Amino acid sequence: MGQSFGKNLKVTIFGSSHQEYIGVVIDNVKPGFEIDMVKLDDFMQRRAPGKSRFTTKRKESDKAIFISGLRENKIISKTITALIKNNNFKSKDYNNLNDIPRPSHADYTSFIKYGKDMDMNGGGPFSGRLTAPFCLAGGIAKQILEEKNIKIASRIKNIGGIYDKSLDLANPPMDELEKISQKEIPVLDEKKEEEIRKLLEDVRSEGDSIGGICQVFGENIPQGLGDPLFDSFEAKISYLSFGIPALRAISFGEGLNSINMRGSAHNDQFELENGKVKTRTNNAGGIVGGITNGMPVVFDLIFKPTPSISLKQKSFSIREKKEKDLLIKGRHDPCLALRTPPIGEAILALTVLDYLYE
């Protein structure tokens, strides 16, 4: 079971949703950098559960506990190990799911692969809870990149078909995106924010769930990262992205919209600005031929609705081998996408830093 990634900067995520601790090991990091713990905690809190009425009622502090690699917040070793304590889990809410799997969840495929040996309480290793240590590593990587003037930001682009305002992908408003990062619904258009808020209230009251899109931006990403074919920059981003539960698709630049465009509109034509090569548009999302071209890197992460809902659903008993109705207990996000912007930023930060460590 692969819970490690990275070629030069190696990261391993461990633990499970209802175990006492989850955590991360970051290997081959360069010593000497001092981590801003306040900034790291702010980053972690954007993803943490229980911070909004539109997310799960499970409350976790998600405070990082560094057990090796740091002294007075400075990296002093090539390997960092950090823990996050799980406090507010209720495994009894999941007892029936050991026999009656949730539709569109990993309960059944986990049983096919591992039988009853895997701890699946709270979704086990398939849970979005494991994105907490992932964000811990990504938050550190983002700080290291900021020292190199590489900026990373994100927003919610779409919830349930309601789109935030369109942006110029060649000139994303990084400062504005940073300002909205702590908002309950991180969108730029306040009118759309109210529409999304109403939709989420309706979905939550109905015991249902809804999907959405997180859009990630990277500015001052160096040119020349990536290679053709299977080592492309997009492939690296996609590899990490599909390790995030509930992701259904990823789209770069104009992405799927490009099927409705002509080449004359989609092609990013070149221009010279003070001797620097740029493109007038950024429909490619800053990546061409699998290699970064110096324009902002832009990609969308498309998430399905939360599979754990309060409505009655059709399932079956693994033990009795007969169909049964399922009512799911516990606390679940009506829209997982709302908590994904820091995850998207972590994906980009860790990918870029891995390349820079070559």
What does this structure look like?
The structure is a single chain. The protein is α+β, with helices and mostly antiparallel strands and 358 residues long. It has a single domain, classed as 4-Layer Sandwich (Chorismate synthase, AroC fold). It has 8 helices and 18 strands. Strand 8 (151-159) and strand 9 (162-163) form a beta hairpin. The two termini are 26 Å apart. Its EC number is 4.2.3.5. Belongs to the chorismate synthase family. One of its GO terms (molecular function) is chorismate synthase activity. One of its GO terms (biological process) is amino acid biosynthetic process.
Tell me the layout of helices and strands.
Blueprint (H helix, E strand, L loop, with lengths): L3 E2 L4 E6 L5 E7 L9 H11 L17 E4 L1 E2 L2 E2 L3 E7 L21 H8 L16 H16 L4 E9 L2 E2 L10 H6 L10 H16 L6 E8 L13 H9 L5 E6 L10 H4 L3 E4 L2 E4 L7 E2 L2 E2 L4 E7 L9 E5 L4 E5 L14 H16 L2
Antiparallel strand pairs: 1-2, 2-3, 3-7, 4-7, 5-6, 8-9, 8-10, 10-16, 11-16, 12-13, 14-15, 17-18
Helix pairs in contact: 1-3, 3-8, 6-8
EC number: 4.2.3.5
InterPro entries: Chorismate_synth, Chorismate_synth_AroC_sf
Pfam families: Chorismate_synt
